Structure formats: structure tokens, C-alpha cells
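The instructor's notes for this session suggest beginning with a concrete chain rather than abstract definitions. Hand out the sequence below and ask the class to guess, before any prediction is shown, which regions might be ordered.
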Amino acid sequence: MSSPETVRSRTIRWELPVLDPAELAGLSGLEYLRRGLDTDTFRAPIGALMDFRPVRFDEGVAVFEALPAEFHYNPIGSVHGGFAATLLDSALGCSIHTTLKPGFGYTTVELKVNYVRPLKLSTGPVRAEGKVIHVGGRIATSEARLTDPDGRLYAHGTTTCLIFPLDDKRTEDKR
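After discussion, reveal the predicted structure:
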């Protein structure tokens, strides 16, 4: 039974994930992601929920940071693996997104995560850095590492993503 001093609460606020779909379709992946970095109010709903943020996007690279918190904990006293997986998935997918031409999107087809050591409150801030391995006409792959400020590895992963036109009128060879 919980006592009043052990009960916590948290309020989450978020913006609509895509304010203007036509704007998304008219920008390259890198332009779209960088535009989000330049906007004080832009934050994907998952970032608000899990309390992580994007910090850098370059061609083929995406970096996110977070601070493990009590609300990320599982019942065995460490940060839930889904926190690391979500950070890695974001870095992996967005690294691929940075390579896309206007009018194309992506979705995760496969995600593989390897956990190396547990995350705890004492870990401090962590950084997920995703880097593209290969981008083809329909399939792209990337890899990412989740590290602390001293470079200690906590998890690493890979993804395969499907690339698709946002508008059925576009063709694959225009990517």
C-alpha cells in the first residue's frame, strides 16, 4: 500500500507532432529535423513523455540526450529498458530521416537493442548517437550507441527502416 509521501505525479504537455503535413513533404529530412531544433516549442510527443530531446542533426547523424529519472524506473530498481530502446530508436530513425529528399518518409521495420549495463539515477545524463550504415531506394540501416558523459556504453542497437513516398504520386526513383 502506498503512503502519501511515496506517491508522485507528473504532468505532460505536448504539441501536435506535425503542424503542417505539406511543409513536411516540402522539406528534406535534414531540413525538417533542423527546423525543429530551431523552434523553442517543437518537441515530439514521445520526447515530452519520456523527457528526452534532440541536440544535433547532420547528414546521416542524429543525437538525442536525456537524464534518467525516477519515473523511468521499473519495479526492480533500475531504469526500464524501454527508455534506452526509445532513445536508440529515435537516434536510429532520425539518422536515416536526415538523408531523405523532400516527399519521403520512413518507418522502422526492425529494431535490435543490446543492453550492456543498467541505467540508474546515478548514471547522470546519457546521449544516443545514431549513424547511417546504408540508404538504398527502399531500405535503410543505421546503428546507435547510448553512452554517458565519460563514454561508458549502456546500450547499442541497429535498425532497418522502410523508405516510402509521402504522396502516392511520387516515385521511388525520385528519392
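Then share the key points. The domain at 20-174 is CATH 3.10.129.10 (Thiol Ester Dehydrase; Chain A). The chain has one domain: 20-174.
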